[in-house]
Amino acid sequence: MKKSRCLSFLTLIALVLLVPMIGHTEGGMELSQGQTIYVPAYSHIYVGNREKPFLLTVTLSIRNTDTKHPVTITTADYYDTKGKLIRKYLEQPVSLGPLESVRYIVPQKDKSGGSGANFVVEWKSGKTVNPVLVETIMIGAESQQGISFTSRGQTISTTN
Fold first, then answer.
1. CATH number of the domain that 82 lies in?
2. Which residues span the domain enclosing 95?
3. Number of folded domains in the chain?
4. In this structure, is residue 142 part of a structural domain?
5. What distance in Å separates the CA atoms of residue 117 and residue 114, rounded to the nearest whole number?
6. Contact 93, 74 (CB under 8 A)
7. pLDDT (0 to 100) of residue 26
8. Given a cut of 80, is residue 134 above it in pLDDT?
9. Closest CA to 38 of 160, 159, 155, 158
10. Chain-centre distance of CA 4, in angstroms?
């Protein structure tokens, strides 16, 4: 009887350790067939005591991190600080091959997004793949001052 309990306990431990690995890559990244990703963006930030707007160029970078399978980008929408849709960057879906990337630009002079702007990116795949990497890169220069920084997207829903 003790041997049976010991085996049951060991089986339970093995399941607890193995179940989280299902649906993950070797590096621990969760595989997916699609996601909706929220990506912070800043068309400007504020500087100085008077909160003077410092305008920035925003680059949205979408990267297929899978080495074997394509993905399809179905949505790349740009929203302002209040959550109002400003621009749809895709008129039709865009396919990205393995390790391929695409970028979309919000020009420095376009301050319509505000300091709380964001993108919503949606992608899908016919196979379970590494998730797409989505980032924004903000850069601006004025007089002799320059600034640059990045924001990484956060998954807000997943298709499996």
1. 2.60.290.11
2. 29-159
3. 1
4. yes
5. 5
6. yes
7. 46
8. yes
9. 155
10. 48
Is residue 56 in some structural domain?
yes
Segment 43-91, tens digit of pLDDT: 999 888 878 889 999 999 999 999 999 999 999 999 999 999 999 999 9
Output the pTM of the full model: 0.81
| Cβ count near 73 (within 10 Å) | 20
Tokens 């009887």, residue located: 1
Amino acid letter for position 72: T
**Cα–Cα distance between 4 and 91 in angstroms, integer?**
62
Assigned domain for 8 exists: no
What single-letter DSSP state applies at residue 103? E
The tokens for 92 are: 């039709």
Who's near 120: CB < 8 A, 6+ residues apart? 36, 37, 38, 39, 75, 76, 77, 79, 156
Alpha-carbon distance of 119 to 37, in angstroms, equals: 8
